[in-house]
Specification:
The complex is a heterodimer. Chain A has 18 helices and 22 strands. By secondary structure, chain A is α/β, with parallel strands linked by helices. Chain A has a domain of 70 residues. In chain A, helix 4 packs across helix 5, helix 6 packs parallel to helix 7 and helix 7 packs across helix 18. Chain A is globular, with a radius of gyration of 25 Å. By secondary structure, chain B is mostly helical. Chain B has a single domain, classed as MetI-like fold. In chain B, helix 3 crosses helix 5. The two termini of chain B are 13 Å apart. Classes of the chains: A alpha/beta, B mainly alpha. At the A-B interface, loops of A face helix 6 and helix 7 of B.
Chain lengths: 524, 271
């Protein structure tokens, strides 16, 4: 039976058309995955289903949800439907919960909004809802506050809020995008189980085909506000669907460059942070973010550093870049210490650069690209000036596939993928030997990600670069690295050639990471 | 929202213009005493009437605008010139003793009302417009230091600042190149608001005799002079009071309007 049916939905915001003739259905007990890149209209489709549309939006077509005509109902009735008949889970678990209310109270609140019931009864039902999302009261008392929980646990609370009233339809908008792979696998399994138990319909929105392919019954591929294709995963045949599929299993061309002498040597590195004192008179505690890490990276080698959030990989990256002092151990680049006494060694820092995760936060919005890309020249004593500087920036931009004329633009004129190219140009401009890529492709759409990975492989060959890939996502690391290091709670628990680690993981944590990678079912 | 900005800019502009025009021309000379013409009600000849010495009130207000604007402008200048570098320094060395000293010193100044600081300064150096400027200026320093520190702290966590650190730039360069341009709009808005507060503070200090000294005209002292005449010449109180009210209102509207205009988040919501 059809729960949600959208027929010929068109949507425009102001004068800008956003959706064209979108049609899809969700039945009972069925998970429908909606896949598209950013800007494809997938979130707008979900918002339209509950008519939570932005101001100035005009919808045409028909949306029927559990027998209601959603485009005709007045706002008062819509409020009754939202939350009771439709539950929603959002992407960002860090901001979806009110930090001042306990988790039990937040779940109980959604119940009390829709039903006249006593506080005690609502709390009891909230506890049951939390139990159903695998947050049992003996381990996670309902009196806990959001800041005491991890991202995955918060997302479970968000799901508990959405399903507390046993809605008939669950809309999950990128529910796992902000989570680690291991956490993501758990949350996806949970959604599948709840859908099966309650016979809910579920609209699961994601930019990653790999995430959805496993658990969705049917898949809707969207592009530029239109539905490209609808069907079971193994029947997808449209060229765009194929391109998406190819992109998410993309393998960047790798050539075996002979690994040279060690370029980066990390030995016995320890990084402590002061933790809050215990009590008023207690000593300040210490939190050990990096705990005795040692490894080498040979010249020309691509090494992956993998671990969940909070494992200390980003702290280690900062220490390698000379941004943070270490408490013990030593980091050397080509034999020279990165930290010289208490100051970062300028000569060494001019030989390495970094690309960060967020293409939107990596640039000062008030500077032009020329100035942004030229920034690392500050490290060189004999930095080019005037026309030579201009030419070096233009060359760097051209080598990442942008035009030399782009140097006169501001950063907001570029898309996320282009910005990441500019970030790579900024890293390249001083011709470093080592580039640290701190989750450099995690925030990108799959197709853009594949292009950037190809670009990196190409640049690595042309300029003889050594990469340190830092990521929580094993599938990225697998395709581009020669060797992989697995990090857990500040320690390296396993290391070895990438293929060997993937084929035969020895440590339990590595195994759990590998199993968690959303695998695309083989299409025969 | 747009209307407020235009109205505010218009009101503030009128008084700035009046102050500028007064350098070249005023309707009547205000240097001399003309007892025969004292306490004239508003009308032809003296548009806003005359005071108890026979001086033209319109001319007094125009020249008084000079005092008010000069005091407020220099006081805001002191606040920005000293406070913003201190705030940026505190943010660049967050958690260090420098941060602690700057922040606590700011708290200390905030603990005293600005009028009390002015009284203390005049008790030591004697009353004058310069000392009023210093008193109001000192009070402005922690306002800007705190604003700059808070805004800069959130920018220090941005990736582009991290990228600048990777490029080997130190706290000073990063503050000047990356932090300051991105908090400039906040500072401009706060500057407008402090400017109006400075005008109010100058009027208050002059009213109690701690600001500009006679014969330099000042809106606050005009109000004080009118106090004893309020029953027979209400216009003496009315017009300087209106001048203060309209200038402050104008500057506040201007500040609010600028904030809406310069804050990209508010801008997005409007379109």
């Amino acid at each position: 039976m059809t729960l949600l049916s959208i027929e010929g939905l068109g949507l425009s915001i102001g004068a800008v058309p956003v959706l064209h003739d979108v049609s899809l259905t969700v039945g009972k007990g069925e998970i429908v995955g909606v896949i598209g890149e950013s800007g494809s209209g997938k979130s707008m489709t979900a918002l339209a289903a509950t008519r939570l549309l932005p101001e100035g939006a005009q919808a045409r077509g028909r949306i029927r949800l559990a027998g209601h005509d959603m485009l005709a109902l007045p706002e008062r009735q819509l409020c009754r439907i939202r939350g009771r008949d439709v539950g929603m889970v959002f992407q960002e678990p860090m901001t979806a919960l009110n930090p001042l209310h306990s988790i039990g109270r937040q779940v109980a609140e959604t119940i009390r909004i829709h039903e006249r019931t006593s506080r005690a009864d609502a709390m009891a039902r909230a506890a049951r809802a939390l139990e159903r999302v695998e947050m049992p009261a003996d381990r996670f008392p309902p009196g806990r506050f959001p800041h005491e929980l991890s991202g995955g646990q918060r997302q479970r609370v968000g799901i508990a809020m959405a399903i507390a009233l046993r809605p008939r339809l669950l809309i999950a908008d990128e529910p796992t995008t902000a989570l680690d792979v291991t956490t993501q696998a758990g949350v996806l399994r949970l959604i599948r189980r709840l859908v099966d138990e309650d016979g809910m319909g579920c609209l699961l929105i994601s930019h990653d085909l790999g995430v959805v392919a496993d658990i969705a019954d049917r898949i809707v591929i969207m592009r530029a506000g239109r539905v490209v294709e609808t069907g079971r995963f193994d029947t997808l045949s449209h060229p765009y669907s194929q391109a998406l599929l190819e992109a998410s299993t993309h393998v960047a061309p790798k050539d075996a460059r002979p690994a040279g002498a060690p370029l980066l040597q990390v030995s016995g590195v320890v990084r402590d942070y002061p933790a809050p004192r215990r009590g008023w008179l207690g000593r300040p505690g210490q939190f050990r973010a990096v705990d005795g890490v040692s490894f080498d990276v040979a010249r020309g080698e691509n090494v992956g550093l993998v671990g969940g959030s909070g494992c200390g990989k980003s702290t280690l990256a900062r220490a390698i870049l000379g941004l943070e002092e270490v408490q013990a151990g030593e980091i050397r680049l080509d034999g020279q210490p990165v930290f010289d006494g208490r100051r970062a060694n300028r000569a060494v820092r001019g030989r390495m650069q970094v690309v960060f995760q967020d293409p939107y936060g990596s640039f000062n919005p008030r500077h032009r690209v020329l100035r942004l890309v030229a920034e690392p020249f500050h490290l060189l004593d004999d930095a080019p000036r005037g026309a030579a500087r201009d030419a070096a920036v233009a060359e760097a931009l051209e080598s990442v596939g942008l035009g030399a004329e782009d140097r006169h633009k501001y950063i907001h004129e570029f898309s996320g993928g282009q910005r990441q190219r500019i970030a790579i140009a900024r890293a390249l401009v001083i011709r470093p030997e080592l580039i640290v890529l701190d989750e450099a492709v995690s925030a990108l759409d799959v197709q853009v990600r594949a292009q950037i990975l190809d670009l990196l492989a190409d640049l690595g060959r042309r300029f003889g670069l050594t990469y340190l890939f830092i990521s929580h996502d094993l599938s990225v690391v697998r395709n581009v690295t020669d060797r992989v290091l697995v990090m857990q709670s500040g320690r390296i628990v396993e290391s070895g050639p990438t293929e060997q680690v993937f084929a035969n993981p020895r440590h339990a944590y590595t195994r759990s990471l590998i199993e968690a990678v959303p695998a695309l079912p083989r299409v025969g | 929202m747009k209307a407020g900005l235009i109205l505010g800019a218009g009101l503030a502009g009128v008084f700035v213009a009046a102050a500028l025009v007064s350098f070249a021309w005023v309707p009547h000379d205000i240097g001399g005493v003309d007892i025969a013409a004292r306490l004239r009600p508003p009308g032809a000849g003296h548009l806003l009437g005359t005071d108890h010495f026979g001086r033209d009130i319109l001319s007094m207000i125009m020249v008084g605008a000079r005092t008010s604007i000069a005091v407020a402008l220099v006081a805001v200048g002191i606040g920005i010139g000293v406070g913003v570098p201190l705030g940026l320094w505190a943010a660049a060395r967050r958690g260090s003793w420098a941060d602690e000293v700057i922040s606590r010193a700011g708290d200390l100044i905030f603990a005293f009302p600005s009028l009390l600081i002015a009284v203390m300064i005049t008790a030591v150096f004697g009353p004058s417009a310069v000392n009023a400027i210093i008193a109001i200026g000192i009070f402005n320093i922690p306002v800007f230091a705190r604003l700059a520190r808070g805004a800069a702290m959130s920018l220090w966590t941005r990736d582009y600042v991290l990228a600048a650190r990777v490029a080997g730039k130190g706290g000073f360069r990063i503050s000047a190149e990356h932090i300051l341009p991105n908090i400039a709009n906040l500072l401009i808005v706060q500057g407008t608001i402090q400017f109006s507060l400075g005008i109010l503070a100058e009027a208050g200090l002059s009213y109690v005799g701690l600001g500009a000294q006679p014969p330099v005209p000042s809106w606050g002292r005009m109000l004080a002079d009118s106090q004893t005449m309020i029953a027979i010449a209400p216009h003496m109180a009315l017009f300087p009071g209106l001048a203060i009210l309209l200038t402050v209102l104008g500057l506040n509207l201007l500040g609010d309007g600028l904030r809406d205009l310069l804050d990209p988040r508010l801008r997005r919501r409007r379109t």
